[in-house]
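Q: Start with the shorter request: fold the first protein.
A: Done. Sequence, then structure:
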Amino acid sequence: MPIEDVSIMDTATAHPVSWPTAKPNRLPAMLELLKPITWFAPMWAFGCGVVSAGAPLADRWWAVILGIVLAGPMVCGTSQAVNDWFDRHVDAINEPNRPIPSGRLPGRTGLHIAIGWTTLSLLVAIPLGVRGFGAAVTGLALAWAYSAPPLRLKRNGWWGNAACAACYEGLPWITGAAVIAPSGIGWHILALAALYSLGAHGIMTLNDFKSVEGDRRTGIFSLPVLLGIEAAGSAACIAMALPQVGVIALLLSWGLVTRGFVVSLLLMAQLLLMVRLMRDPKAQAPWYNATGTTLYVIGMLVSAFAVRMVP
């Protein structure tokens, strides 16, 4: 049966959207809405938190698995659904083939998924106790504050990227450590989580280069829009590099010279890659995310193993 396209006006955005009258299989579109590729970062950070705690898994292995699911598919997936719904008019410019502006998730389906995934995330967090549930509430609150009015933190690249970085790195790291060591975690772990969270601010800036045109036209002052492409690239590099210098300093101060040396080598390699990034930050950002950011997260794991040796 042929599908007839009906063009209507999205009253919330005043942008025409074509929705098919037939009901296609929406499962692929729903999965695309949740952006599985973005789940890796918080899942990795949660794993680093578990490693950094240095506590035996024993009978807590189930909490690790549940925490990884919560950090990635649940909370991060929710943040993607929320962002796609409130950014549907921006995506109509930058990525018109996304599930909502393309009409593959018509009407308020995207909003319903965001609300439903938020509720499901809270239910998944309950078995993790007060700390796990509190972390889930915090992450979900930041996800909605980042994308949804009236706060819509993403309208300012400084605040928006800080909230996003905290959700992707710092919060999952601390949660992973707290879940596996419920008796408490030391300031050493908190310091590493905070530094790598600060560094992730630069990674978030790199992700903003792909949406410069839509951001500029819809009043979103991401750093590439606010500072310009070259200056935003420099800001991203500084944001990623300086916290790692702090990590190296901490490792050396704790007497972990070998680990500090390894993280130093990883940072030096990133600095070399940043030279190519700065030749054309907008074009090279995806390449750097596949290379330099990979070295960044390897350093996270090295540091997580190292902090276990701090008395």
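Q: Next, the second protein, separately.
A: Sequence, then structure:
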Amino acid sequence: MEQITGRVWKLGDNIDTDVIYPGKYLPIIDAPEMALHVLEGLDPEFPKKIEKGDVIVAGFNFGCGSSREQAATSLKHAGIACIVAKSFSRIFFRNAINQGLALVQSKDAPDKIQPGETITINFASGEIITSQNQRFSFPPLPEFLMGILEDGGLIPHVKKSLKS
């Protein structure tokens, strides 16, 4: 995965796991069905608006709250390609990587990226480029995390490494 290009959904600070994947849906274990409820806590129509390859741009502390991995799973299966945020909850960060959901931490980009615009995230160069040709750098993910993302998540990554 060298780069992702997608339409932006702009969210704020402290988007917690209850907003991302409401607790009343925790009994659902089918990932595609889980995706039908993603961010319903923020906007009941949100799941119908998402298109495959979209990008969420948010503020501080994205994914705070409980440790439920359903938050990351539902985002990935809804078609979200990447989340760009000022910061992430530690547990959400790891759950997202384990699910194969790309994350980018940037202190500056979230304030300047506009909702609905298209951005390109280049993981190799550590750069976000907006449709307005604004450029923001971000610290690249370590190689071992990029390997997990490129393999589609932790389980496919482990299976691949066991075959080699």
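Q: Describe the second briefly.
A: Residues 90-99 form the longest helix (10 residues). The chain has one domain: 3-163.
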